[in-house]
Structure formats: C-alpha cells, structure tokens
Design goal:
heterodimer, A: 355 residues, alpha/beta, Alpha-Beta Plaits, Rossmann fold, 2 domains, five-stranded antiparallel sheet, 14 strands, 29% helix, elongated, disordered N terminus, disordered C terminus, B: 262 residues, mainly alpha
C-alpha cells in the first residue's frame, strides 16, 4: 500500500519539485511561475532582423562554431545559451562584426556585419564581456562621450535615471559597484537608440537581487521595442526572459525553441525519488516501460524515465504492496533539457548549469 | 583610421573633441605622468638655472653656457617622457581593461582613442616645452634661436623628435600586453635614450667617438643635435633630420603591424 501521510513529503521549496499529491498536474505546472512576462509573439509573423546561416569558425585546431544557423525576429528576446567556452561569445562577435567567420552568411538588419560595420554599430547596441571604460572617467562623462558617437543618441540623462545611476553620475567608473557597472554598460548599449541590443553575460558576477533587477530592466528595454539577443549561461535567466533559446554546445546549435518547449522535449530526464520502507526488488521498477534507469543512493532510489513516470512507479509499488516515503517528482525544466541535450559529463560547470 | 581629420563631419569632430577632452581630464586626475613629463624637466631647469657656474659661458662649449646646452636635453626629456612613459602605459591598460574592445562596438573605431591619446601627448609635450622655454628665457637668460631660420628648424626638430618618441611609445604599447610589461620595457630603454640626449652629462664632454656616433643615430641624440644647433644659430645638417624621419617610419610601420586591439 502506498504510504501517504503528511510526514512523508518533505515540503520542498524548490519550485520544480512538486508534491506527489499534485502528480496529475505535473505537465500543467510546467513553468507557470517561472515567467513573468507574457510570451511575445514570435516566428514568421515578425520580420527577421538577424539571419545567421551555416556559420563556421575555427581558432587553430579548435572549432568554435560549427554550422550554426538561427534567425532572430523583431521584438523578441532571443537567448543564446551554453556553457563557458561553448562558442556563444564567438557567435556574438561574428554577428556584431568584430570577428570574421571562416564560412557562413550573416545578415543583421539587412547589413553585412563586416562590410557595413559602422552602419551596423549605429543600429545595434552591443555589451560585451571583458569590456570597460577608462577607470578615471565619471559616469556622466562616459555617457556624454558615447552619445557623441551616434547619429541619433538617446537622452543620456534620462537613460541614466531609468537605470538608477542618477546618484552615481559623478562617480568614477572604477568606484562603481559590479551592479552599477553592468547598468552603465546597458546605458552604453542603448545610448545610440539601437534597434537590436546584444547583451553578453549581463548578469554574471551579480548577486541574486541585482540579477533580478537587471532582468526587469531588460524587460523594460524590450517594451521599448528593442530586439534583444541575450547571451547567458544561466538557465534561470534564459527561462525567465527569453521568448526563444538557441542552445549551443561545442560550437553547435543543439536545440532551438521556446524555453518551455525545450523543457517539454526533455521529458527523458524526468526523475522520481523515493525511499522504500520495504525491500524493493530491482526488476520491479526497471521492468516498467516508462523507466529508463534505477539508481540507489543509500536508502534513496532515483528512478529516471519518461512519460507518466510518477503514476507508473506509484502504481507498481502499490501493486507489489511496497511502502515508500519521501516520494518526490522532478518535472523537466530548461536545465534538464540542457543536460539532456549537451554532454554534461565532459565539462561540468559550477556556475548554474549544474546544481 | 579611415577618415582623415580634414573630412570629419561636425559630429565626428565633436566626438573626437570629447575623446581628447576626456583623455586630458584623465591625465590631470592621475598626475604622475604630468609630474614626470613636465615637473621633472622644469625642476631640473630651475636647479641648473639657479647655479651661477652653469649659466656662465664656457669656452670649452664654444662660448655657450652649460645651461644653454642643457635646455635642448630637457626638451628631449619632455618628449621621451610623454611618448615612452605616458602613452604606452595608458594604451596598454586600455587594451587590458577592455576599453578598446568596448569602443570597437560603437560607430567610432578604437583607433580614434589612439589618435586622441597621441593628440593629448602632443599637447602635454607642447605645454612642457613652452614652460621650459618661457621660464628659461624669462628667468635664466636662455638664448633662444636668433632668427626665423633657427625658429623653423627648432620647430621641425621638435615635431620630428616628438613623432619619433611617440612612435617608439606606440611600438611599446603594441607589444606590451599589460601596463606592467609596458613599464618594464620603458624602464629598459628610457635611461639609455635619456643618456644619449645628454641628461647626465653632455655627450660631447665624454670625448668618445663611439658614444658620439651612437648618439647621432638614436632619436634622442639626433633630436638633441638638431635642437642644439638650431638654438645656437648653427646649421644642424641633414643627418639628424634623416635619422628622425627614419625612426618615425620604422616605428609607425612596426606599431601598425604589431598593434592588437584586444
């Protein structure tokens, strides 16, 4: 008999693990609380603003990009997600004309990023990793300087206020906090009133609160009608902000879809954890068609599989008369998709890709 | 830089002006460069100008004073201080910190920052030299060039020496991955170059043909020879100018070839 009383279920605050008594609605629970903004219509209805076709780039014998293709539509937040070293920054550098790909075609707003570089930089705001402004320039001076670089600059003072840097206007760049530096880099990416903003690892190094604040800002920027290409290795960030995500691994696009759809596609990584009170014959669960693997971690058993895994496992235990405690189901999220679609064993990353 | 200064639009001129103004503000906010390039030569001028023995005409120096001989050396010192210490420090740290990378994503290429830095170096050098000549002539009886020919030769010599030292500085900035490396390279070359401009002792006082010959082919020695002759109303000859032009060409080509924006 399946043993069920309140003590059995450890209340789990982590949002992707639900209580067993909600098992029937696992699919529906998918990401209902993860997104704050309504999904913006994407796809063919909106014109493409970035078209990347069969992009290839090697550094010596290292393949940084291998046959990368994707299209970004006007008004969407497009995520480029991958581990450090997956090729994300190289892709961005090719799109923004800073690097010449070995092969492939890129069109950004109808422009060739290398040939029409100056015009491209008028219309595409870019925030790159490892970039800075002089230490001893004040925020206000930097913004005024960068505004002078563009044909039709935005109102610098208004942007500074929007990004909460008003009080830091007279502060030297070197005295800004990490969060302030990131917000200044957003100001500089937007100062030219770009049609597209490319933001590379914008929230890396920020504390969780500053990160959430930055996310809100990005949503505000999109509300202004700016198309955003967001490069990140944070799963949560891509899930929360992006309309569509290109998952890059070893220089290849391994998946490209809405974050929710990617997660749904990764049902193979669905897991059920339980602690049997009675002896559990090995083949009882592994014989189920939904189950792909059973692992023992001390007293705990982790069942991996697909389909309606929880129901299948619980029913099998019930039929065999085995009681179990602490039954937990983990629904698939984007991170599971990531792990399923990329090769996680070869290079683990402690910065949020694995937990 | 693809656009020359003559074809800049008003917007581009404003951007360049703001870049130069920003670099000047930074130079004032981190005044160690100004102290080395303007303060030290001025202090040496005051010290030697105040010693009666150094301002007396010396028959051994062809009738001029040691002070008159030393002012061209100090002018060359200003130029190597600006070109070899300030410029590579600033540019290599801009590269290391990602300032050049940040600019490379804007419609204004990072080469403009290099041009602005060079402009600021020239402005600082002009200020340093003006202070030397003003104080030298006003307070210590420095003999300035006697005629228009001497004036023109002096200005040409100063400009070419400035171009050569800034060129050397750009080569250092090109090969140095960090300001620390730039500082080490500069330290290696600065004092020998200063020596051949006569900073420690006038080169002709050493009475060594080898030293004199080496001085002739180095930018500091050639700069000093040209300035010394022009200030003294003599013809410097073509050699110092050819040597300086040679250094400018070699350094520009090397810097252009070796410079990395990232």
């Amino acid at each position: 008999m399946y043993h069920h009383h309140e003590r059995d279920i450890i209340p789990v605050s982590f949002k992707y693990i639900d209580r067993i008594d909600a098992l029937m609605s696992i699919q529906e629970l998918d990401r209902t609380d993860a997104r704050v903004s309504a999904p913006v219509p994407s796809g063919p209805a909106r014109p493409p603003v970035i078209e990347v076709a069969r992009l290839h780039k090697e550094y010596g014998s290292t393949v940084a990009l291998d046959d990368v293709s994707f299209t970004v539509h006007a008004g969407e937040i497009f995520g480029i997600l991958g581990r450090n070293g997956a090729g994300k920054t190289t892709a961005v550098e090719c799109i923004t004309g800073l690097r010449t790909p070995d092969r492939g075609d890129i069109r950004v707003l109808g422009l060739d990023p290398r040939r029409d570089r100056q015009e491209l930089h008028e219309r595409v705001g870019v925030q790159l990793q490892d970039s800075a402004v002089p230490d001893l320039m004040r925020v206000g001076e930097v913004v005024e300087l960068y505004a002078s670089f563009y044909r039709e600059p935005a109102d610098g003072r208004e942007l500074i206020a929007t990004l909460g840097l008003h009080d830091a206007q007279h502060t030297y760049f070197k005295h800004l906090s990490g969060g302030q530096k990131q917000r200044l880099s957003i100001v500089l990416a937007l100062i030219g009133q770009p049609e597209i903003a490319v933001l590379d690892e914008l929230t890396t190094g920020l504390d969780p609160e500053a990160r959430r604040h930055t996310w809100k800002l990005i949503e505000k920027v999109r509300a202004r009608g700016v198309t955003i290409v967001l490069v990140t290795h944070f799963m949560e960030e891509a899930e929360r902000l992006c309309d569509r995500v290109a998952l890059i691994d070893h220089g290849r696009v391994v998946a490209l879809d809405r974050p929710g759809a990617l997660a749904l596609a990764a049902t193979t990584s669905k897991r059920v954890r339980l602690t049997p009170i009675d002896p559990l014959p090995e083949e009882l669960l592994s014989a189920l068609p939904e189950v792909s693997g059973v692992e023992h971690h001390g007293a705990e058993v982790v069942v991996a599989g697909s389909g309606d895994l929880v129901t299948a496992v619980v029913l099998a235990l019930h039929r065999a008369g085995i009681q179990a405690e602490d039954v937990e189901s983990e629904t698939a999220n984007l991170e599971d998709a990531f792990l399923a679609l990329t090769d996680e064993t070869t290079h683990a990353d402690s910065n949020g890709v694995t937990r | 830089m693809s656009t020359s200064a003559l074809t800049l639009t008003p917007r581009q001129r404003r951007a360049f002006g703001l870049l130069v103004a920003g670099e000047i503000k930074i130079a004032i906010r981190r005044p160690v460069g100004l102290l080395v390039a303007i303060g030290i030569p001025f202090a040496l001028l005051v010290i030697f100008g105040s010693i009666p023995a150094t301002t007396r005409p010396e028959p051994a120096l062809g009738g001029i004073s040691f002070f008159d001989l030393y002012v061209p050396t100090l002018m060359v010192f200003v130029l190597i201080a600006v070109g070899l210490t300030g410029l590579p420090q600033q540019l290599s740290s801009y590269r290391q910190q990602g300032v050049l990378r940040r600019m490379s994503t804007t419609p204004v290429p990072p080469a403009w920052l290099l041009a602005a830095q060079t402009t600021v170096s020239l402005i600082l050098a002009a200020i340093g030299i003006a202070i030397l000549l003003g104080a030298g002539a006003g307070a210590y009886g420095l003999a300035l060039p006697h005629d228009a020919g001497g004036d023109i030769l002096s200005v040409v010599a100063l400009l070419l020496t400035a171009a050569a030292t800034i060129g050397l500085g750009l080569v250092v900035a090109a090969v140095a991955k960090s300001p620390q490396i730039a500082g080490a390279i500069t330290a290696l070359f600065f004092y020998p170059l200063a020596f051949f401009s006569g900073l420690y002792v006038p080169v002709q006082e050493i009475h060594s043909q080898l030293i004199t010959d080496i001085a002739k082919v180095l930018p500091t020695g050639a700069g000093f020879n040209a300035l010394h002759a022009a200030f003294g109303g003599q013809s410097p000859g073509v050699l110092p100018f050819l040597v300086l032009v040679g250094w400018v060409i070699v350094c520009s080509l090397a810097a252009a070839r070796l410079f990395r924006w990232e």
